[in-house]
Description:
globular; alpha/beta
Amino acid sequence: MPSIVTSGLTQHYERHGTAGRPPVLLISGLGGVGASWGPQVELLARDFDIILPDQRGTGRTDRTPDGYTTEQLAADMAALVVELDVGPVHVVGSSTGGAIAQQMALRHPELVRSLVIASSFARFDAYMHRQFAVRGIMAAQWDKPNLFAGYSLFLFSPRYTREHPEQVQQWINRATAHPSQPEDRDIAMHRIAMIAAHDTLADLPRIDQPTLVLCGEQNHCTPLSLSEEIASAIPGATLVVLPEAGELIELEMPERFAKLVKAFVEDHA
């Protein structure tokens, strides 16, 4: 896994696909690890040059004591794009990654060719504040197997959990198996505070890159109303709602998700 060092941060990333194809930066959700994109890496690497970073404080990127804002993580992503000399890139962000993608488009617009914002939010509403108050207690107090079993109830739709219990358990097992560091619990709390503080709603009308907003109809983590808010605020944005899907569209409907991203990126390449 290669890495770059910018502003004192050693940031790890993977590269998949073929250089010279349209560059696509995949920004993952709250866990921050690039590998969480699962089947999307192989599906999208067939047609694109995929850049897959571990975010600050996660995976094999440095676990820094500070810098946990969506603005800073967008700056980290921008530094990676500049270092690799691949910009402007098509940015695909899921959940927290979608919030970081918004900040990239607003603060580093010259590096962003298009945006796909999946299962995300421009700001927390009352439901999100209440949800993450509970999830903060879980993150602070529960052991990893119980924590990720609890998280799965927020992240997968009831339909998917009913029809694919083995895949959900495999997701829990993989998340639990990730190597832990002593500071990980504190970083998890910093990252929850980071997304609770994120608020770009008033600035979204300044985004002029082509934007696709995706959300599952049964998303109980970042509900559809939040994606509708994003799509209404960004000029010309397209909203696609996937029936019966939950938060993790990219895992529940991998072929459908990849097809939507592929068509959108090719339209704007």
